[in-house]
């Protein structure tokens, strides 16, 4: 029998500790990712039960993505300042409570409000979990493996959402899709309390309340104007006022953030063409995903008459390809750089959307699946090159902040995609199928924009601006 030395025992305990911490962080990303696709499957059921309009359904989705987009950077700053474990637990508790309240919401208005509470908690999960992983896994190789596992769970949650949601909605009703988060959240809270050590940034960034309020006014008013425009009239006073406030908030945000020493959004980053390009690509590409999930769910259940489970099963090819090609994308970026992945992503998104422009109530299922596979591959390819391009030339100590800004733009894109495609459908009087043709055309156009922006933001001149800007940032 071989005796185990003290160092080996210590090493074994540390390995187990790191695995438990990683598992806890993976639980959080599973919950947050699951809500992206599981709620979409339930939209028709929610519509029928709560007598919701198209714009009401848009708010059910966008109340979640919009609040996360507004609070993502604030949550990261709070975690660095007040403790990552503490903020992570608060996020898990708020997300779990919001999920429980969503399951008992008596009306559409309350459901939207509780979705917002979910999102407040959700904004504290992924960015803080990533900070915890970076802090626990000090070895670069082990950290890379941990982040890879974390990303795989994120892809698995997206792929699982349609099936789990379809099973729950078909068997127990739409309210049951929110129950699953409660036990998972409670387990994650207990594991965090038991195993995750508290950590803070050595020099936490200052909070920026004026900048935060400007971001909320900009994104909130812009999204509200797009969603409510078809119902109130695009030229009506409330809609014009919303767009006016959004424009004013954008101007104020640029002025405020350009003058602050530690702004919420550092405007100097946008002097880098790759960073600006990555931000725009994030908005456009994620807008296609938000639009795809919204339009496709209503089409499969309201037009084709499929059950929630059947619709969920048909969505699996898209989600599976998204997960698979997210991994392929990382390898492609590592070997060839971001340009090929971006070009292929935009092209596949465009082709997949073009195939869906002519949908009818009797389109062959095999044709739908082919379109879903193509679109899913394109959507999966875009994440890694966006992150790579956004961080191009950035000083290492500012990479986290730059990545958080890029993530905010991606969340904003998902909210805008639901708002725009829903507004196109709601504005039309020719029925959902024919109205959706214009919406799918917009999604296809976004694919073309991804190709053009990818080409423009990854050239030699663009990369040179990133290097120059990185040098200026490193010396200030």
Question: What layout of secondary structure does this protein have?
Answer:
Elements lengths: L5 H45 L3 H29 L1 H20 L4 H15 L3 H11 L3 H33 L8 H15 L13 H24 L4 H23 L13 H31 L4 H29 L1 H20 L7 H17 L1 H8 L8 H29 L4 H26 L2 H15 L2
Question: Keywords for this structure?
Answer:
single chain; 476 residues; mainly alpha; Growth Hormone, Chain: A; 3 domains; 17 helices; globular; disordered N terminus
Task: Walk me through what this model shows.
The protein is mainly alpha-helical and 476 residues long. It folds into 3 domains: 14-196, Growth Hormone, Chain: A, CATH 1.20.1250.20; 209-263; 265-476, Growth Hormone, Chain: A, CATH 1.20.1250. It has 17 helices and no strands. The protein has helices at 6-50, 54-82, 84-103, 108-122, 126-136, 140-172, 181-195, 209-232, 237-259, 273-303, 308-336, 338-357, 365-381, 383-390, 399-427, 432-457, 460-474. Helix 1 packs across helix 11. Mean pLDDT is 83; it is low at 1-9.
User: What is the H/E string?
Assistant: HHHHHHHHHHHHHHHHH
Q: Report strand %.
A: under 5%
Number of strands: 0
Q: What's the shape? A: globular
**CATH topology of the largest domain, which one?**
Growth Hormone, Chain: A
What is the CA-CA span between the terminal residues?
A: 60 Å
Mean pLDDT: 83
What count of structural domains? 3
Q: What is the alpha-carbon Rg in Å?
A: 22 Å
Portion in helices: over 70%
Q: Which CATH architecture of the largest domain would you pick?
A: Up-down Bundle
The CATH homologous superfamily name of the largest domain equals MFS general substrate transporter like domains
Name the poorly predicted regions. 1-9
Please identify the structural class as seen in this structure: mainly alpha
Main sheet record: none
CATH class of the largest domain: Mainly Alpha
Quaternary structure state of the chains depicted: single chain
Put simply, the count of helices is 17
């Amino acid at each position: 029998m071989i005796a185990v030395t003290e160092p080996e025992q210590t090493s074994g305990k540390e390995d187990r500790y790191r695995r438990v911490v990683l598992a806890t962080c993976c639980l959080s990303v599973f919950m947050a990712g699951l809500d992206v696709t599981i709620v979409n499957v339930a939209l028709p059921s929610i519509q029928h039960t709560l007598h919701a309009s198209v714009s009401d359904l848009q708010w059910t989705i966008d109340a979640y993505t919009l609040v996360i987009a507004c609070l993502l950077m604030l949550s990261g700053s709070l975690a660095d300042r007040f403790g990552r474990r503490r903020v992570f637990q608060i996020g898990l508790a708020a997300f779990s409570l919001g999920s429980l309240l969503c399951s008992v919401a008596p009306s559409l208005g309350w459901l939207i409000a509780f979705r917002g509470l979910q999102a407040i908690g959700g904004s504290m999960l992924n960015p803080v979990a990533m900070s915890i992983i970076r802090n626990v896994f000090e070895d670069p190789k082990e950290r890379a493996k941990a982040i890879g596992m974390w990303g795989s769970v994120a892809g698995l949650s997206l792929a699982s959402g349609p099936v789990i949601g379809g099973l729950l909605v078909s068997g127990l009703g739409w309210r049951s899709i929110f129950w699953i988060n409660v036990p998972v959240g409670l387990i994650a809270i207990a594991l965090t309390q038991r195993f995750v050590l508290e950590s803070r940034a050595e020099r936490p960034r200052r909070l920026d309340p004026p900048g935060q309020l400007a971001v909320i006014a900009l994104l909130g008013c812009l999204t509200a104007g797009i969603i409510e425009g078809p119902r109130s009239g695009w030229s009506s006073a409330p809609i014009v006022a919303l767009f006016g406030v959004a424009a004013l908030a954008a101007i104020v945000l640029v002025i405020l953030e350009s003058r602050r020493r530690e702004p919420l959004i550092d405007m100097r980053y946008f002097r880098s063409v790759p960073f600006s390009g990555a931000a725009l690509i994030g908005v456009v590409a994620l807008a296609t995903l938000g639009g795809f999930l919204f339009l496709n769910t209503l089409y499969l259940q309201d037009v084709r008459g499929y059950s929630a489970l059947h619709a969920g099963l048909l969505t699996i090819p898209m989600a599976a390809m998204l997960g698979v090609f997210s991994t392929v994308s990382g390898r492609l970026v590592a070997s060839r750089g971001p340009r090929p992945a971006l070009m292929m992503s935009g092209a596949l998104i465009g082709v997949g959307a073009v195939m869906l422009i002519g949908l009818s109530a009797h389109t062959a299922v095999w044709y739908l699946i082919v379109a879903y596979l193509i679109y899913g591959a394109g959507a999966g390819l875009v994440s890694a090159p966006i992150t790579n391009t956004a961080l191009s030339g950035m000083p290492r100590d500012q990479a986290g902040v730059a990545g958080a800004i890029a993530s905010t733009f991606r969340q904003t894109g998902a909210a805008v995609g639901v708002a725009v495609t829903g507004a196109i459908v709601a504005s039309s009087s020719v029925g959902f199928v024919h109205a959706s043709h214009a919406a799918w055309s917009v999604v296809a156009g976004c694919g073309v924009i991804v190709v053009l922006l990818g080409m423009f933001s990854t050239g030699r001149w663009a990369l040179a601006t990133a290097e120059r800007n990185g040098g200026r940032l490193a010396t200030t």
